């Protein structure tokens, strides 16, 4: 990305809590003041969980009328408990109780929530319908494999009708929510001995049954969705089609998620957040760039770290000037895959991901670039640290980058300064997600990973004391 010297200067001017103070100095530098309270407190009493954990992804089966979108679903697999199953069915069939409870919880969390949110995500709120298909299915519907396409209501109906009888999973999806759920699960591990992370999301859902489903699912995952539903709005959906070679193709129907405004409620949330994450998909939606700019400006003024996810190559190319403006002037952290990083830098496909990482790290304090089975890179001050990939048999690559981002954020929020260790954690989180069907990090895996990372930090602290 060709940034002017003025833009570069703006990107590196930091308040005391900006990430550049941590990673632009020696590896032994202390965490920024706003994050010190999140540093490990081994032996401290664990924070109680706000609620019991439940599985996020629900296995369902479509019937001929695509009832999932009309407020009804028939079971193809059971929930973890009868109570959860009843709540899900009530929400998806348009019951009022779930919506009313959702609104009350959201308003309460926004008004009397924590003094500061550890992380606030600003992104698209989409319900995912994920299913396994073969190449012939994609060819029959003239869908290009491995791409992401924005579709209209009629196109969505055509694909869903073609999936009649297919087994699929419904989840509170969207790229950012995948990262936030994984982060919340890592941050709620009782075995790691850390204080629980407080995670929130703002976005746009409709007042329809899918909107209630989305909000309820995030709430169960300890991610507080704090935006009010749009009256008479339609919640966005993404159809995720995965082929046997683990490649995924996404068809996005934006619905109400294409509307986002920076109102006083959102401004209040931004002002009391330690980290603001902006999902790159928002850049392609009408009238959202000004809301993004205002949120970043307020986050910057209040000393929060600002992270941006690249999200998609085509999105970067269509909205290049807006990405350049926000990333160049506000971003402390940039998450991208190899192709997205090259698109940011306007480099040819023959250029290595390491080169793109180094290039971007001259303008963004911390750059995270993933390269699939080839590993990943973390860039700081013109240097790129290579993170080797863990062994993994891929089952579903959807959500791999989202999971990786959650690992990076978790390491930063826990006060770690060992970039290689943070990268290794992130790659392990991604490998776990890639090795399963579905985009969510499971609770038991999050516990194991968080505990392992805590032991890693303890060993580093012990070595430094010695």
TrEMBL record:
Cellular-component GO terms for this entry: chloroplast
Domain Carbohydrate kinase PfkB residues, every copy: 168-441
Compositionally biased residues, Basic and acidic residues: 90-99
GO molecular function, one term: kinase activity
Gene3D superfamilies associated with the record: 3.40.1190.20
Skewed-composition ranges (Low complexity): 70-79
Nucleotide-binding among keywords: no
Pfam family of the protein (one): PfkB
Segments for region (Disordered): 70-100
Database matches in InterPro entries: Carb_kinase_PfkB-like, Carboh/pur_kinase_PfkB_CS, PfkB_dom, Ribo/fructo_kinase, Ribokinase-like
Sequence ranges of Acidic residues compositional bias: 80-89
Domain of life: Eukaryota
Name of the molecule in the record: Carbohydrate kinase PfkB domain-containing protein
Native source species: Sorghum bicolor
Record lineage: Eukaryota, Viridiplantae, Streptophyta, Embryophyta, Tracheophyta
């Amino acid at each position: 990305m060709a940034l002017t010297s003025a833009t570069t200067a703006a990107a590196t001017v930091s308040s005391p809590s900006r990430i550049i103070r941590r990673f632009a100095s020696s590896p032994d530098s202390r965490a920024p003041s706003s994050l010190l309270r999140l540093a490990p407190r081994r032996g401290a009493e664990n924070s109680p969980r706000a609620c019991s954990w439940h599985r996020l992804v629900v296995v369902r089966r479509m019937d001929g009328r695509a009832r999932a979108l009309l407020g009804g679903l028939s079971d193809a697999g059971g929930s973890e408990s009868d109570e959860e199953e009843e709540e899900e069915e009530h929400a998806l069939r348009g019951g009022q109780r779930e919506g009313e409870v959702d609104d009350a919880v959201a308003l309460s969390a926004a008004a009397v929530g924590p003094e500061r949110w550890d992380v606030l995500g600003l992104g698209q709120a989409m319900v995912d319908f994920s299913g396994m298909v073969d190449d012939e299915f994609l060819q029959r519907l003239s869908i290009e494999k491995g791409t992401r396409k924005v579709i209209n209501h009629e196109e969505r109906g055509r694909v869903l009708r073609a999936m009649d009888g297919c087994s699929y999973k419904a989840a509170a999806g969207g790229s950012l929510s995948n990262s936030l759920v994984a982060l919340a699960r890592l941050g709620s591990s009782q075995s790691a001995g850390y204080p629980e992370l407080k995670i929130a999301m703002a976005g746009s859902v409709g007042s329809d049954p899918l909107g209630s489903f989305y909000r309820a699912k995030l709430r169960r995952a300890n991610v507080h969705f704090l935006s009010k539903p749009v009256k008479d709005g339609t919640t966005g959906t993404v159809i995720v089609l995965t082929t046997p070679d683990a490649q995924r193709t996404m068809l996005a129907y934006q619905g109400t998620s294409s509307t986002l405004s920076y109102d006083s409620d959102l401004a209040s949330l931004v002002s009391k957040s330690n980290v603001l994450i902006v999902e790159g998909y928002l850049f392609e939606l009408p009238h959202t760039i000004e809301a993004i700019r205002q949120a970043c400006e307020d986050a910057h003024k209040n000393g929060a770290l600002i992270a941006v996810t690249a999200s998609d190559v085509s999105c970067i190319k269509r909205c290049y000037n807006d990405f350049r403006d926000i990333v160049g002037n506000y971003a402390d952290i940039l998450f991208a895959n190899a192709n997205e990083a090259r698109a940011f830098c306007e480099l040819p496909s023959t250029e290595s991901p390491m080169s793109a990482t180094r290039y971007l790290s001259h303008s963004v304090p911390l750059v995270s670039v993933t390269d699939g089975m080839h590993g990943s890179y973390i860039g700081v001050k013109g240097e790129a640290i290579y993170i080797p990939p863990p062994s993994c048999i891929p089952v579903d690559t959807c959500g791999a980058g989202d999971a990786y981002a959650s690992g990076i954020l978790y390491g930063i929020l826990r006060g770690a300064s060992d970039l290689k260790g943070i990268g290794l954690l992130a790659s392990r989180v991604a490998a776990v997600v890639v090795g399963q069907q579905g985009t969510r990090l499971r609770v038991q895996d999050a516990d194991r990973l968080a505990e392992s990372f805590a032991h890693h930090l303890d060993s580093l602290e012990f070595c430094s004391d010695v």
